[in-house]
Amino acid sequence: MYLVIGAGLAGLSAALTLQEAGHAVTVIDGADRAGGRISTDVIDGFILDRGFQLINLNYPEVKRLGLSTELDFRIAPRTVGVCSGNKRVVIGDPRQAPLSAFSSKIGTLREKLSFLKYLATKPAANEDVQNHLLRCGTGGLYDKVLKPFLQGVFLTDPSQVSAVVGRELIGSFISGKSGIPAKGVGVFSETLAKRVIDLRLNTQVEEVRGNRILTNQGEIVATKIILATDLTTAAQLLNADQVSPLIRSTTWYHVAVDAPSDSSELILDADHRGPVVNSLVISNLSKNYAPAGQNLISSTTVTHASESEVRRHLALMWGSSTENWRLIAKYEINSALPLFAPGKTKATSSKFSDVIYLAGDYLSAPSQNGALASGRLAALELMLDEGL
Ligand SMILES: Cc1cc2nc3c(=O)[nH]c(=O)nc-3n(C[C@H](O)[C@H](O)[C@H](O)COP(=O)(O)OP(=O)(O)OC[C@H]3O[C@@H](n4cnc5c(N)ncnc54)[C@H](O)[C@@H]3O)c2cc1C
Q: pTM of the prediction?
């Protein structure tokens, strides 16, 4: 029996790869639902993703799964609003139109051309994202637009992230088609999970002893195991060292009767006046996110911040009072993303022992694509070893 532990994107991708090759596989997960970090709650008629994230339909692994028609997908605008002082300029999405649509107020023409140079330049092995972008001459454009935008992508300062991994992610945003399923990002993982024939939830693994798995539901004996939990759990279960630190982030959900904007653009603060890295009226992207007559605003912070600091910063960014906004939920995610520090590379093999293979974003890239790819590769390696 092949066993996959963890029904996040990595585990689901591993299971579907085995299943599609004609092999029976059981997936277990400790949680009451599949999806891991891609999950959604519905509270009082509001759709609350457990951490703001956009799904990129153009990721190669997402395309391979052919899910798009099942998601009732809402594509996010290809522009962002950049606030500076009491003005907000709408600029072409740096992911989509790095040259043509930038306002002259944000970065000089030379800096915009430098961003194109960046896209064509290979990063050095131990370089970080910030150094790579500045070395290419992005200067003020980096500080005002790219830095705040990328903080929301990496959930940390770009100077902490490997330029190699950063270049790959930035490239995928440029060619991307990002958005959300109309009823929350959880629909993405639920749709994938429905394809798995044998999925057992509420089954928490407590110990792994070779091919014997001790769970809260009893013992399972497997021929081969793909361990697709988050990094910390994998390290604990295998008595191994944790290979990379984890990044935390917080998503704040406020409700407003009057929306601060009609648009569903992400807004950024070029002046870095507070803890919020990005904010959007997510109910403008999908009306389902809030009951009629109400608006849901999703904002992300990556450093410790109080609600009053967040509210004050949001007032500056949106240029409107936030006094009557109501905080309805706050999701603090301690292990949001694995940090790919400069020099850290993708794992070349998923094999941990003769029985155990590893999968998870921490092995490949801190993204949906990274998680899905790691699961598929673990399953392929397992099948190769089995001569299947
Ligand atoms: C706030 C936030 C924003 C993000 N934004 C983006 C974005 O915009 N674009 C992008 O591409 N990526 C984004 N990501 C990253 C992406 O969501 C993750 O890389 C991906 O979901 C990780 O999948 P995974 O399968 O590797 O891990 P996980 O989703 O963590 O799955 C691990 C699974 O293992 C289970 N498990 C753990 N321990 C046990 C145990 N002992 N027994 C049984 N089961 C166990 C868990 O319940 C979970 O289901 C974001 C992530 C977060 C948190």
A: 0.95
